[in-house]
Write a structure and sequence with these properties.
heterodimer, A: mainly beta, four-stranded antiparallel beta sheet, B: mainly alpha, 4 helices, about 0% strand, membrane (chain A)
């Protein structure tokens, strides 16, 4: 500690230890906040049409169109250590081969607390197709709204805000009504 | 020229005495721990990480300004050396 340089060295060494302890405390403080808000998700319509496959334009594949209504107040998830919220709508079904599928069909990033009180009509943002050719033989699907809380410091946490009951896939429609 | 060089060197080295070093050690330790604890509590109470880091960083800027330059208060106990022995005494003792 006798010269300027050794003082800078010593103080900044202990400073970094204190900073690490402070960051650890902030990360652990997220455990105090255990909000688990619930919302309401309604699937208003499901329609299946045939579309071109992504790669081969002479082949056809079933595409499902989902319209939904969502009300959820997710403001309790915002605390001092919340940077943003990743919300996603997921369809869960078992296809004809018995494979469990979870397909993300809509998502949204919420940066601010005052935008976390949601009430919206939406439709699937991402094309919802089965890995096979069609949804024929697939079980009824559950639609769930899930969230991922991204903190400034600490661990990502996941949760589920809403879930619909099982909804069967409709018959394929050949013409756009 | 040499005197000037020595002066510049002493300004950049900024030496302080042993008592001053002890004081610096205590001040920096107490301030850093207190800054971390207070900034956490205030930030948690206000639910604002910005408050936490504003408090922590400003406390550290003040700390560096207090501790790093060789202020006169760290140089109030200069080491007193014993008077040099004359060479004749030195030869007798050895």
């Amino acid at each position: 500690m006798h010269t300027v340089y050794s003082r800078i060295n010593n103080v900044s060494a202990f400073l970094s230890s204190c900073l690490m302890a402070l960051l650890a405390a902030i990360a652990l403080s997220s455990l105090v906040f255990t909000a688990d808000p619930k919302g309401i998700l309604d699937v208003q319509s499901l329609n299946i049409y045939e579309g071109h496959t992504r790669r081969y334009h002479n082949r056809w594949q079933d595409v499902t169109f989902v319209n939904f209504n969502l009300t959820a107040d997710l403001t309790p998830l915002f605390n001092w250590n919340t940077k943003q919220l990743f919300l996603y709508l997921q369809a869960e079904y078992v296809d004809a081969k018995g494979v469990k599928n979870e397909v993300v069909i809509w998502d949204r990033i919420i940066h601010k607390k005052d935008k976390a009180n949601l009430s919206l009509n939406g439709r699937n943002k991402y094309v919802f197709r089965n890995l096979g050719k069609s949804f024929k033989g697939a079980s009824a699907a559950n639609y769930t709204l899930k969230y991922n809380v991204m903190p400034y410091v600490g661990l990502l946490t996941y949760g589920e805000a809403a879930r619909t009951g099982p909804l069967a896939f409709p018959e394929k429609r050949t013409e756009v009504a | 020229m040499d005197a000037l060089q020595a002066k510049i060197q002493s300004i950049f080295e900024g030496k302080i005495d042993f008592e001053g070093q002890k004081k610096v050690e205590q001040i920096s330790r107490v301030t850093l721990v207190a800054a971390a604890v207070v900034s956490f509590i205030v930030g948690f109470a206000l639910q604002s990480l910005r408050a936490t880091f504003v408090i922590f960083i400003s406390a550290n800027i003040v700390l560096f300004l207090v501790v790093v330059p060789p202020w006169p208060m760290f140089n109030q106990h200069p080491v007193k050396f014993l008077p040099a022995k004359s060479p004749s005494n030195d030869k007798k003792s050895s």
